[in-house]
Amino acid sequence: MIQGNVFKPWVPNWLIILVLVFCMLHSMVLLGVYTSNITYSASFLDVEVEDLQFSLCVTYGTFLATILIESRLFKFFPTKKYFVTIYGLAAITFILSAYTDNFSLFIVLRMVEGVLMALPWIPLRQLLITRFQSKNAVILGFTFNYGTLLLASPFIMNIAVWLLENYDWKYMAYGSAMFQIICVGLVMLTFNENRFHKKIPLYQVDWSSYILVLTAILSGAFVFIYGEKLYWFDSIAIKAAIVVAFITGGLFVIRQVVLKRPCFDMGVFQFDNLRIGFLLFIIFYISRATLNICHSTMFSVWNWEPSRVAHVQYLNVIGNLIGMITAGFILAKGLASRYAFMLGFFLLAVYHLWFTFLFVPDAALRDIALPYTIQGMAVGVLFVPLVLFTVSSVPVEYAPFSGTVGVSGRFWGSTIGFCIMQNAQVFLQKKHYTKLSQSVLWESPETQERISQYTNSFIAKGYATDDAGKLAIRQVLDSLSKQSVLLGNMEIFTALGYVLLLLTVLLLFNKHLKQTFDIFKNRVWGS
């Protein structure tokens, strides 16, 4: 039940929209600031890249669990104080992280940030949708909500990289904390003391379900992130995490079935289109995970500077904008969602198959610009229609739960995507490196000539003859390693490209994939 306007009377509607959109960036800052430069962050904390990825999963996984109970908290606290407290606590956690070099403590802070990321997420979108008088208010609200996340990521990465290159880790945390303080100021300036919802007692929060599902999520994420590194079932930690995930996950499901008012209604899975939306989200995020392979190739093979890689992502932003405008047109015209899905997944297939031919020892920006932009277009076309399709595939009483299913699809899709790419890269790199090493005849004239060239090059730089010879051999082995990486990447992109083409064909002939509920009538308040 909405109680009234929570904004001061003098604040114009356009300013309210700008403030809400700006405050939405809070979630993107919390989620992505530490992963803007994973190599630097990992070296500062003296951890592996997998550890940083797990910290990202901790934040996102905590976010996923917290949105199950968020509405109870939002309806209990006064709206203005609710937002001010969240942004203030977020600023404090960033400051604490600036002086934290202990990874265990860092993980605890990332869990806190996951909670703080979830609490304002749905309320901000609710408030934003109420500011649009158009019949397409839901589309506009969701587009602004999720478009903000898509478009903000490259900007935040560029700022973080600039701070890391010119200052150090602490200043990146200081900058993030300052952003939260600005949000506090904007809320104080524009919000009044009214409540947005009728007050609901806090004792109705299902803390037991929250702890169970959070434990299951984090245990499952641990298995996917560290499985390859710990040799899967050879590790006691992996076995224990699997057991904990199944037990706590099973207890959570049982609890939701037997409770009269569950925090998540399992009946939402009875709707076919919701299950399809969940599956499409997982496929979508698995295919998005290959963008990290592109960035890794830019760093490790093409030797691009971090700032250059960050700047390249603006091409992706241009693609996102084009894609979101196209998706908005499709949705506003009332066309079936599958047309947006077909276009988006087809563009993703084009990006993967095109990039297959770009994994060469050296590439220029002009070579990758168009397919890299196409990837952004595909993401822009798919993101909001997938969200709306999932949350509007059920009757209105199930809408909040269908929204949670969508978030779950995004979380598990990105986590499984990282796992698949990590395992595929390791396996294929080893396979190709072994074959290339066996094919190199060290006594052949071509190999000896290359070693001689490298040796002379190192001698010219001032190295002793013996040292130059050793470095030359290492250079040849490094070349083999890079070539094996490129060949593995080509296989991954080719396989995914064909899978996405097959998916596009299936969507073309699947006449049952259509929205079963009018999204303009279904006022979706779920996540």
From TrEMBL:
The chain crosses the membrane at residues 12-32, 52-70, 82-99, 105-124, 136-159, 171-191, 203-225, 231-254, 274-291, 311-332, 339-360, 372-391, 492-509. The keyword Transmembrane applies. Keywords: Membrane, Transmembrane, Transmembrane helix, Transport. InterPro entries: MFS_trans_sf. It comes from the Bacteria. Coiled coil: none annotated. It is found in: Membrane. It is a multi-pass membrane protein. GO terms for cellular component: membrane. Gene3D superfamilies: MFS general substrate transporter like domains. The keyword Transmembrane applies. Its main location: membrane. PANTHER family: MAJOR FACILITATOR SUPERFAMILY MULTIDRUG TRANSPORTER MFSC (PTHR42718:SF9). This is MFS transporter.
